[in-house]
Specification:
The complex is a heterodimer of chains A (181) and B (71). With 181 residues, chain A is mostly helical. Chain A has ten helices and no strands. Classes of the chains: A mainly alpha (181), B mainly alpha (71).
């Protein structure tokens, strides 16, 4: 395993964004840090596959994302890990980076289907282009676009409850209120 | 029948006119913008957290091991 100082610095520089992505994906800081560590080790052992001059961050995000999904599938078989428990985990760790202002938002984010959450995080928060996000997720650009759009509409529904409250207690508003309360 | 009540009591039908009032494009754009801002703010908050020592240690340990061990 070769690690030159230059590569070490580049990997270290990537850690904050990898952590932010991992925390937002998994909703759990400890697990996110394990994911980041596995990502770094995997990257180092496959560094010969990285094309110098291409986007290191995008490559690392791809690794992290794939590790997350294979682990997620494994865990799902062991313990049913519903989206509700993701939200619950976020709530019990406010000291770990979730400022109170973001509580509602993180809860709403946790209600999104994982593929939509992932697409929105890559494009709307991590600053990847639709094309890069499609590469990272191994799917078509159009798929990413529609996931991001659906994620935004769903978040708007979940977060804009104040604006539409006067519509009455229809099922959508009830669902949104439950999601936020 | 679709229109038959299933005893859910208070379910109300929203008149289409009031719906179109609520869903004006300007409001929608404003909401989308707010969501985008909020998402980035939340994310930046995470990005700005200090890097835990374990990562610094891990990477420098690998560097040293590389000097010492031929593997």
């Amino acid at each position: 395993m070769t690690i030159e100082p230059e590569l070490r610095d580049a990997l270290l520089a990537a850690v904050p964004s990898l952590r932010a992505f991992a925390i937002s994906l998994s909703g759990q800081v400890d697990r996110a840090d394990d994911l980041v560590q596995d990502t770094l080790l995997r990257a180092l052992s496959h560094i010969d596959r990285f094309e110098r001059g291409t986007n290191l961050n995008a490559w690392l995000f791809t690794i992290l994302r794939n590790l997350f999904h294979s682990e997620y599938r494994k865990r799902r078989r062991e313990v049913e890990d519903a989206d509700g428990s993701y939200a619950a985990r976020l709530k019990v760790s406010p000291e770990q980076g979730a400022r109170l202002d973001f509580e509602d938002f993180r809860t709403a984010l946790a209600k999104l289907p994982p593929d939509q959450r992932e697409a929105l995080l890559l494009v709307g928060a991590s600053g990847f282009s639709y094309e890069e996000a499609a590469n990272i997720c191994g799917c078509a650009v159009g798929t990413i676009k529609s996931r991001v759009n659906r994620a935004r509409s769903r978040l708007a529904q979940l977060l804009a409850v104040d604006d539409v409250e006067d519509l009455g207690p229809d099922s959508m508003t009830r669902a949104a209120l439950q999601a936020i309360g | 029948m679709m229109t038959q009540s299933k005893g859910r009591g208070g379910a109300k039908v929203i008149p289409e006119s009031s719906l179109s009032d609520e869903l004006e494009p300007g409001l929608d754009r404003a909401i989308q913008e707010r969501i985008g801002d909020h998402l980035r703010a939340m994310y930046d908050d995470l990005v700005q957290q200090p890097v835990p020592d374990r990562f610094v240690e891990l990477l420098s340990r690998l560097e040293k091991r590389n000097d010492a061990v031929d593997k």
